[in-house]
Design a protein that fits this description.
single chain; 368 residues; alpha+beta; Jelly Rolls; Endonuclease I-creI; 2 domains; 9-stranded mixed beta sheet; 6-stranded mixed beta sheet; 6 helices; globular
Length: 368
């Protein structure tokens, strides 16, 4: 049975944390979908507080801070990786430009609840219908930059760390009206915000997984293509999925070579849709994504060559076994198409598991 979803107005709590212009209720209703579950769609707000963050991990045993149904939409407030308020102020950021919840989280999250990684992620969110073997579709509907500043810093895990043994950091002012970053005199960077980390719990055997390396759970992908309007698909490993997000970026270059991007604080609006496992269908084993213009496959591994192999093989599998809106190719034609018309890009080189993503233009497919 299918049921038409119901569009609801955003809550007052959401309107307080971001400008009303971020919502397009009419457009959202026009894009309403038919959900395979008989639960009316709801909207939720998840603020970043000391009790709603997962500090440095994705974990199958984490307690959900919010439970929702497939088809629901959640607006999620997150922190940056720029550090605690005292560090931000030392970098020249005005105290008035540092949200109060940042100080509360640094002051009140117990040391025992931090790590093994360093990303402060908001969540986890349990999606009631999600079970192992399913696919969680995450529609990135809106991304809002919450502060007029960002940071970048080279650390010990940067790709050329031996060239910069002392590291460095810099503050980058953001113009939220022009959507640009003043990198330095004479250099202005256009902003394309996205969440560096979006993921779900790994399999139970993985334990409390460090938030730094991406994997089959998605996580710290640092994929600059996952901007507003993109959709992420993640294979579900445990009941509820347990989605988390954070590590906001106002922009980034492929590679993220010094280990950070234009790091800032974001609030995002996401819709979650569970696709149930079906017998006879090729299962999704690695995260993949779509933008309005491209299909994207991904691969992650400590070895860059292996990560590349995984990404290309995942695109071959998608084109030959999983593509939903075009006649599927033979594996031979899929491999050839990637060679002649798709791009294999380095996502990042610095997160433990290196990332590679393959971009296949949707414009190639002229018959639906």
């Amino acid at each position: 049975m299918y049921q038409l979803v119901v569009c609801l107005q955003p809550s007052l709590a959401v309107q307080k944390i971001m400008p009303c212009k971020i919502f397009r209720s009419a457009a959202f209703c026009a894009a309403a979908l038919l959900s395979p579950f008989t639960v009316a769609q709801q909207t939720h707000t998840l603020l970043a507080t000391p009790t709603t963050v997962a500090w440095g991990y994705y974990w199958s045993q984490a307690k959900p801070v919010l439970s929702i149904n497939s088809g629901d939409t959640v607006t999620i407030q997150t922190l940056s990786t720029c550090g605690q308020p005292s560090r931000l102020e030392a970098r020249g950021i005005a105290p008035a430009d540092i949200p109060d919840y940042v100080r509360a989280i640094y002051d009140k999250v117990p040391a025992a609840d931090r790590g093994p990684g360093g990303h402060i992620l908001t969540g986890p969110i349990a999606i009631a219908q999600a079970e192992p073997g399913d696919v969680l579709e995450v529609r990135i509907q809106k991304i809002h930059i919450d502060v007029p500043w960002a940071c970048n810093g080279a650390g010990k895990n940067g790709f050329l760390a031996k060239d910069f043994p002392d590291g460095f950091s810099k503050t980058i002012p953001l113009d939220l009206k022009k959507m640009t970053a003043a990198f330095s005199p004479g250099i202005t960077i256009p902003l394309h915000p996205f969440f560096g980390s979006m993921g779900i719990a790994p399999p139970e055997a993985a334990g409390k997984l460090n938030s730094a390396p991406p994997g089959t759970h998605a996580g710290n992908m640092d994929n600059k293509e996952l901007v507003e309007g993109a959709t992420l698909f993640i294979p579900v490993h445990i009941k509820g999925a347990l989605f988390e997000a954070g590590d906001g970026h106002a922009g980034q270059g492929n590679g993220e070579v010094d280990i950070t991007a234009i790091e800032t604080q974001l609030t995002g609006t996401f819709q979650f849709i569970v696709h149930k496992k079906k017998d006879g269908e090729s299962p999704l084993l690695w995260p993949r994504a779509e933008t309005p213009t491209h299909y994207i496959s991904m691969g992650f591994d400590e070895d860059l060559t292996k990560a590349t192999e995984i990404s290309i093989r995942n695109m071959i599998t998608f084109l030959s076994e999983q593509m939903p809106d075009h006649p599927r190719l033979t594996r031979e034609d899929a491999y050839a198409l990637i060679s002649v018309a798709c791009d294999v890009d380095i996502t990042q080189l610095v997160d433990g598991n290196k990332g590679v993503h393959t971009m296949c233009p949707k414009s190639l497919f002229t018959v639906r």
